[in-house]
Amino acid sequence: MTKIIAAFFCSLLVVISVSAQSGRRITATPTPTPAVREDPDNYSESKPQPKRPVQVWPSLRGASTSKSANASSPASDTIAAAPPAGSESEDFGKVETNLVTIPVSVFDRQGLYIPNLMQQDFKIFEDGKEQRIEYFGTSDKPFTVVLLIDTSPSTSYKIEEIRRAATAFVDQLKSEDKVMVIEFAANVHVLTEPTGDRVAIYKAINRADFGPGTSLYDAVSFALSKRLNNVSGRKAIVLFTDGVDTQSTKANYDSTLALAEEADSLIFPIYYNTFQSTMSAQIGIFGPPLPGTTAREYATGKKYLEELASYTGGRVFRPESTPGGLTAAFEGIADELRRQYNIGYIPTEDGKPGQRKTIKVRVNRPNLVLRARDSYIVGAK
């Protein structure tokens, strides 16, 4: 026993001697804590969109020389900057201006809204890294909606239905919500600026009437960069169109998608496939179909509307597949705007101007459908 104790002290003296000579403190090496992997059967996540190519088809109509919205858009640095103190919007309170807010819609597999979720039910990730949630709330605050109505010849046969459905949509809103009505054919016309005056809104809707040509890309660009960019609080565009553009000169497919990614507005296209009716009318009256109304152009238009919705966190409504038709589609949009959750966070890592940041939202319940934008583009500092 004496020998064992002596050996222990000898070893201790050697360790102390080595430590003193090296000038380093001997410390125990911490054992790494294994990462906890969550079971994907216990949660649901928003689905990322495929990376958008620079250009879908070289033959797309619209100005091919339009500058990217990344370089010229007046949008804020992030998806939504906190409003200044004393502003009308109280969604965020007093927080830093680089707060990123994400509207999130949560449904079950049958499309029914999931209510009563709490902040602790959510997680949010940016570029794969979990972020601390700084703000959480439900969407019961007022919002501004742009009714962007395609009044080109291809939709003219539905103009009365459009007016009725748009009026029904306005009827679903609260008195504090504001509506702006814009029509577009060859040109873009503002029929009323954002207002809560229902009489003025109804009159503007009834003034919408069809004209020649379709400047869809110009209209989307105008609504985002010339009107909604100066509006604070929650905002959305309800876009009624078949997606076909024939006359835009100031914007194109890609520039408007880039602008939509950088903006903080939800876009809900109401898609009408007018291909068959347009072909029949043209063959019967004008002879062969005119350029810009081919099946390929219609396919491009449908894809464009799907991407506008996906990259902004909205969704596409198709009246012919919606029970109740166009009016029910409008009502569905109003209902969804009412029932969204808002999640806000301050990014742990600053991005460079023009950089795309990916976003993923998670809810700790399985078998749910989450709809939220999956990225944003960092604006100029």
Walk me through what this model shows:
It contains 9 helices and 14 strands. By secondary structure, it is of the alpha+beta class. It folds into 2 domains: 45-138 and 341-377, no CATH class; 143-338, 3-Layer(aba) Sandwich (Rossmann fold). Strands 1, 3, 4, 12 and 14 form a 5-stranded antiparallel sheet that branches. A 5-stranded mixed sheet has the order 8-7-6-9-10, sandwiched between helices. β6 (143-150), α3 and β7 form a beta-alpha-beta unit. α3 (159-172) runs antiparallel to α4 (198-207) and α5 packs parallel to α6 (253-262). 38% of the residues are buried. The model is unreliable at 8-36, 54-96 and 281-290 (pLDDT under 50).
Topology of helices and strands:
Blueprint: H1 2-22, E1 44-45, H2 69-72, E2 100-108, E3 122-126, E4 129-131, E5 133-138, E6 143-150, H3 159-172, E7 178-184, E8 188-195, H4 198-207, H5 216-227, E9 234-241, H6 253-262, E10 266-271, H7 275-286, H8 295-312, H9 325-338, E11 341-345, E12 356-363, E13 368-371, E14 375-377
Parallel strand pairs: 6-7, 6-9, 9-10
Antiparallel strand pairs: 1-12, 2-11, 2-13, 3-4, 3-12, 5-11, 7-8, 12-14
Note the beta-strand portion: 15-25%
Low-pLDDT parts are: 8-36, 54-96, 281-290
* Alpha carbon gyration radius: 27 Å
- Chain-averaged pLDDT: 76
